[in-house]
Design a protein that fits this description.
2 copies of one chain form a homodimer.
Chain A: H1 3-15, H2 21-32, H3 39-49, H4 55-67, E1 72-74, E2 82-84, E3 91-95, E4 101-104, H5 112-116, E5 123-134, H6 136-139
Parallel strand pairs in A: 3-5
Antiparallel strand pairs in A: 1-2, 3-4
Chain B binds a DNA duplex (30 and 30 nucleotides) through helix 4.
DNA sequence: TGCCAAAACAGGAATCGTTATTAGTTGAAC
DNA sequence: GTTCAACTAATAACGATTCCTGTTTTGGCA
C-alpha cells in the first residue's frame, strides 16, 4: 500500500468517517483525472463504473474528503468549483477560454499567510491565489 | 466636479455607454456604502431612492461599470460577489462568520503578476489574492 | 421642439451549481 | 441474525445570476 493510500486511510480512521465504495470511487476519479475536475466531471467518471451513484453523493463525498483534508478545492468566478488531490499549498491557473487548469510551479506561497497577518486585525484562516490566463493551446 | 467624477464621465464617454440615472444610483450606493456591498445590498440602497429599479438592472449596471473600469469585483466562495469603487489593485479579507470585508493595507500586489508569469506558459490576465479570516468583532 | 432608432429598463421567468430532504439501504457491533 | 447509526439515491429546493419580452427613455437630427 502506498504512502498516500495509508495517509488517506489514517485520515478516515481519525475522522470517524468510513471509506465507502462511493468515496473510494471519487478518490479514484480524482487520481485518474489529468487535472482539476469539477464535481460534474467526477460524477461522470464515477458513473462509468457504478451507474447508480447520484450527483448529490459525489458532492457529499467531496465535502467529507475536503473536511478531513484529503482533497483541496479551488474556486474561480463564473466556473464550477474544481477539486484536487494535492493538499500541499500550490498555485493553479485557469484558462479563461477553455477552462483548463494547470499548476504554476516554483511559487512559494508558504509565507503568504504570515506576510499578510501583521497587516490585518482579522485572524487569517485562508489565503489563496486565484490566477487566470490564456493557455498555450488557446492562444493559437 | 471632483477628479473621480470627471474620470467616471470620461470612461462613460469613451466607452459609448450612457451614464443613466440607474447607473448613477449604483455608483452613489457604492460610494455611500461602508465597504464592499453585494449586488443585493446595492439594489436595496438604490431602491430607497427609486423603488422602481429592478435587481436585474443593478446587475447589468454593475457589469457595465466593471467593463469600463469604474469598479472592481471580488469573489469569495459560498458568498455573493462584492463590488468596490477602488480600482487600484489591493487585497481584501472577508470574515467567514459575518461576511464583513475589509482591506488589508500595505500589501504590495504589484509584482504578483510579473512574479508568476515566468513560471507558466499561460498568458496571465488576472491574479488576485483571496483571503478569509475572522474579524475582531466575531472573535469575541 | 418633435420624431425616430437605439439603448436601457422593469418585471419576471429561467438557469446553473450546489445543498437539503426523505425514504430506503448498507454494514459494522453486539 | 438483529439492531442501529451512517450512508446513499433520488429528487426537490435554493440562491445568485442571467435571460427574455414588452415598455420606456435617451440622444441624434430634422
Amino acid at each position: 500500500m502506498s504512502r498516500v493510500e495509508q495517509d488517506i486511510r489514517d485520515k478516515f480512521r481519525r475522522s470517524g468517517y468510513t471509506l465507502t465504495s462511493q468515496r473510494r470511487a471519487v478518490l479514484d476519479a480524482l487520481r485518474d483525472s489529468d487535472g482539476h475536475p469539477s464535481a460534474e466531471e467526477i460524477y461522470l467518471a464515477v458513473k462509468k463504473k457504478n451507474p447508480r451513484v447520484a450527483l448529490g453523493t459525489v458532492y457529499q463525498a467531496l465535502s467529507v474528503l475536503e473536511e478531513i483534508g484529503v482533497i483541496d478545492t479551488k474556486h474561480w468566478s463564473d466556473s464550477p468549483t474544481r477539486y484536487d488531490l494535492n493538499t500541499e499549498p500550490h498555485c493553479d491557473i485557469r484558462c479563461v477560454r477553455c477552462g483548463r487548469v494547470d499548476e504554476i510551479p516554483d511559487v512559494d506561497l508558504g509565507d503568504l499567510h504570515s506576510r499578510l497577518q501583521p497587516n490585518t486585525p482579522y485572524e487569517i484562516t485562508e489565503a489563496a491565489l486565484v490566477v487566470e490566463g490564456i493557455c498555450p493551446a488557446c492562444r493559437t
